[in-house]
UniProtKB/TrEMBL annotation:
Sequence ranges of Basic and acidic residues compositional bias: 114-129
Keyword Lyase: no
EC primary class: transferase
The name this protein goes by in its record: Kinase
InterPro entries listed in its UniProt record: IPK, IPK_sf
Native source organism of the sequence: Huso huso (Beluga)
Entry's family note: Belongs to the inositol phosphokinase (IPK) family.
Keyword Membrane appears in the UniProt entry: no
EC nos: 2.7.-.-
Entry keywords, A to Z: Kinase, Transferase
Any one Pfam family match given in the protein's UniProt record, by short name: IPK
Region described as Disordered: spans on this chain: 110-129
Length: 389
């Protein structure tokens, strides 16, 4: 039994007790809602391929990914006070009970694509997008003051982080339609951070998986061509960063990230590693070391393609720049579209060598961070931060 599943203790009666899930307030990117299971664990919708990747990751890559902690079944329930809650229940001792993409209660007349998306209803009309999700599709950068911080920073960020809040609302509505769904339990990478600064960087020159429809391939290819992904193998997919001088949390969403040029991308990176008063040179130096280590490991992964995976960079924003050892972390996340020798017979494709697109993204990121450090050393005006939209 995984450590997170120990929350489910046996008790008399047919059903063990469930765990009420909360919005994960530090989610800055992605389109699938991340939920908080406990103080060290989050959960996300189970995609079978991602589940299998976590079980088959090479040993040397595991320190650069989140720890896998099992599977739970999530459904919408109503509390005694009338509140609508998302409740997690055991899904059979870490066993994924539904083959393929899990959706135990599918609506009649709905077909499902290989990547788990609803594509057409019974009348054959194109898929419709929920208004709640559409409301997210506006590029923004927000600066929100943290003055008057409540006892729990978690409470404040739950009110402020618009991306996490709206994705949670959207997930509640989807689960009302679906009935229930299995979720992966994963390590919460922000555990132990008081004011985590989080940057989500989408890596690679291609985002669609092997089983993507032609429509999906065209859509994802267009996003890469119109952003820095095609040129640099990376694009900014979301950010939250705390500014010590103004006591503000800055949020940037993926739609603004897509519109950035290479120079704009470098400017955002400069802002992410800036306290508002000075550059966090020590954090950048540590991140550069970790990026070099990750590159060496990825270069050894024969046949892997990490399509649509992201690099998550985190550091403690509450610590002043004068502190010698500000905590930071670098992890690779999101494996729903990963291709590897494990899936070659299913996909009908066998890849040779390492993932050139992901490696290009890591090199581009290293180059930009090195340039930011160089400009800071020379005292040049290279770290101009974008104004909020």
């Amino acid at each position: 039994m995984g450590p997170a599943l120990q929350y489910f203790m046996p008790r008399p009666g047919p059903d063990p007790r469930g765990v009420a899930l909360e919005p994960f307030v530090h989610q800055v990117g992605g389109h699938s809602c991340i939920l908080r299971f406990d103080s060290g664990t989050v959960c996300k919708v189970l995609i079978r391929r991602e589940h299998d990747v976590y079980h088959s990751l090479p040993a040397d890559l595991r320190p650069f990914t989140a720890q896998y902690r099992g599977v739970v079944l999530v459904r919408v329930e109503q509390s005694k006070t009338g509140s609508i809650l998302l409740i997690a229940h055991p899904a059979g001792m870490n066993h994924v009970s539904v083959a393929g993409v899990c959706c135990p209660k599918r609506n009649r007349g709905t077909s499902w694509g290989r990547e788990g998306e609803r594509v057409r209803d019974s009348a054959g009309s194109p898929k419709t997008r929920d208004e709640t999700l559409e409301a997210l599709k506006q590029p923004y950068m927000l600066r929100l003051p943290l003055s008057g911080c409540p006892p729990r920073t978690q409470d404040l960020l739950a009110q402020l982080n618009p991306w996490a809040r709206r994705l949670y609302q959207y997930r509640v509505e989807r689960l009302r339609e679906e009935g229930e769904r299995e979720f992966l339990l994963l390590e919460d990478l922000t555990q132990g951070f008081r004011l985590p600064c989080v940057l989500d960087v989408k890596l690679g020159c291609r985002q669609h998986g092997e089983g993507a429809s032609l429509e999906k391939q065209r859509s994802q290819s267009k996003k890469c061509e119109q952003s820095t992904s095609a040129e640099l193998g990376m694009r900014v997919c979301g950010m939250q960063v705390f500014q010590l001088d103004s006591d503000q949390m800055i949020f940037l969403n993926k739609y603004l990230g897509r519109s950035l040029s290479a120079e704009g991308c470098r400017g955002i990176l400069g802002q992410f590693f800036h306290s508002g008063a000075r550059l966090r040179r020590g954090v950048i130096a540590g991140v550069l070391t970790r990026l070099g280590e990750l590159r060496e490991i990825v270069e050894r992964q024969e046949g892997y393609r990490f399509y649509s995976s992201s690099l998550l960079i985190l550091y403690e924003g509450a610590e002043p720049c004068s502190v010698d050892s500000v905590r930071f972390d670098v992890r690779l996340i999101d494996f729903a579209h990963t291709s590897s020798p494990l899936f070659s017979s299913h996909d009908g494709v066998t890849h040779g060598g390492s993932d050139a697109g992901l490696l290009l993204g890591l090199r581009s990121l290293q180059g930009m961070l090195g340039e930011i450090l160089r400009q800071d050393r020379e005292g040049r005006e290279g770290l101009q931060r974008p104004t909020p939209l």
